Amino acid sequence: MFALLFMPILAYAAYLLMLFLLDSFHGDGSILHQYAFGSRRQLAFQALSDGRQALPVFYAVTLLLWGELSLLSRFGGWRGVMPALVAGVLTTSVPAALLVEPGWTAVLPPVVAGLLLSLALVWARRPSGMRG
Amino acid sequence: MNAMRCAAILLAGIFFGAAPAHALDHVWVVGGGPYPAQSQAQIEFNVNWVIQVLNAGAGARQMHVYYTDGSSPARDVVLWQPPAESRASLQPLARVFGAQEQNGERFYSHRVPHVSGGTEAGDLAARLEQDFSGLQSGDRALLIYNGHGWRDPDDPAGNTLELWNDSSLSVREMDRLMSHVDPAVPVRFVFTQCYSGGFARLMHPQARDTLALGEGNRCGFFAESEDRESEGCSAGINAGDYRDYSTYFFAALGGRTRTGEAITANPDRNGDNVVSLYEAHLFALSQAHNADLPRATSEVFLERWQPWYLRWVGTGAEPDNVYGRLAREVAKKNGLPESGPALISEIRARRNALTQKMAGLEKEHESLGREIKALQQQIRKEIGLRWPEAFAPYTLNFVQFLKKDLDAAQDFILSHPRYADLVARQDRRAALELGEISGLDRDVTQLDKILRLRRLARLQSQFERHASEEERGWYQRLQSCGGQPL
Questions:
Q1: CA gap B96, B475 in Å, rounded
Q2: Are B230 and B194 contacting, i.e. CB atoms less than 8 angstroms apart?
Q3: ipTM computed for the complex
Q4: pTM for the complete prediction?
Q5: Exposure check for chain A: N or C terminus, fewer CB within 10 A?
């Protein structure tokens, strides 16, 4: 339950962090530029407004992954971390490449967020006897 | 033969080429400052030049000119020229009492021809409402504002035009006035004041922060964003170097620079032999070396459109569209690599160097200010012991001082051992304000402009890939409105 509630927010934070790293080291450095020389207030408003629209999508992806992992767990050989990671990568990379842009810079941030979500869901779904 | 040919062409134009009989181009030129001391001659020169360009342009247009106090003979414009360093100009006394800049000011009544009225907000709004209500389908409207602007930090639709007698007109009020225009009439506007980007909201219904366009067919061009000062409102206003947005924008439309020379770059980007307002804007973007980051409503629309999932994605991409090409032009013009990681790394390095240099100059500026104050206090103290009347301006005592003791007081100042220091520091400080700091600001802005153009290039490319039919329709409407000639 905890994972379902808070993981989408953490996944979104990871997505933003990836965007920031790619922008800073492989792009124009637009985020840092706006922070340092532009309107920080505008940047903050933009982040809030984007967050409001992005979080429902991240919650939806979390639910989708949860459903996928539940289905996979019915097959003996499809349990565990690796199948979950594969599901996370496919669930995020394909829509990102199709709906955002086909380049790796557009696909990598959602994939990292998807991997994080998958790991969290695997941890949340592990048998109760294994819980620490 | 030639005369007959001309007459034939003219008649053909009248009978076949002309718009419907009632259709007319209307141009509103609104200019000037809120009071004489803020109504700089540069604004007046700009307005007169814009009127010349409009009058020289092809086709007939009805001009409506509104300037400061209208046709009142009162002195409403201030011209600044460096005052002579002589006793006759009172400059020694002015330097010691901190009025050395005002001492170069001269006030006169504006020389803008055929003025329809003043710009006091109430009167101007009433006149604009009346003028706008009279527009009919087939007409075209162009509103040009050259003056000062103010910013509402909480709401761009609250940004204002600073009008005569300290009155103002906000974006929302302008929207209300423009709502009287027949929606079929294209309304183009050019705002060159500080924080002018707030007026981009005029494209939206009730100037709200939405993506949808309003009912009216409106588009515009702005010297700056909603939160930045434009060139001409900064210290450079008195320098007399004409680098503001309107200088480049109207040079493109008129084909000549402010000094009458033919422009060196061709603004007609699409090669149709007509320079549209949008092409004039692109010309200003590529040619201006000033502290402005101009924008068009179509660009502001793209920025407003960008969805969250495209923001900050692929910021190193370099699409080959009009903005991508402009970015490369500006980079080349500034001696930078045209594209790629080398460009970004060079921009970062240069910006750091310029910022450090700017910080050094600002420190020097601040320190000079303190030194000047100390020197003035020292000399003033000694003046006060000899001529106490000099410290009470607007009194009879001061008039007596000017009549009897002015020469002696100025001789005392000129022979004071610290006066030469004071002059040197004041002159250095003025040179920093008007020259070096402004110059650096302009250099930094060129780097920011390249980054902005690259961002617009990516935005346009994303828009072409992702926008809905309705959004494309809105963008097309803005493009075709701004794509019209004068």
A1: 58
A2: yes
A3: 0.91
A4: 0.91
A5: C
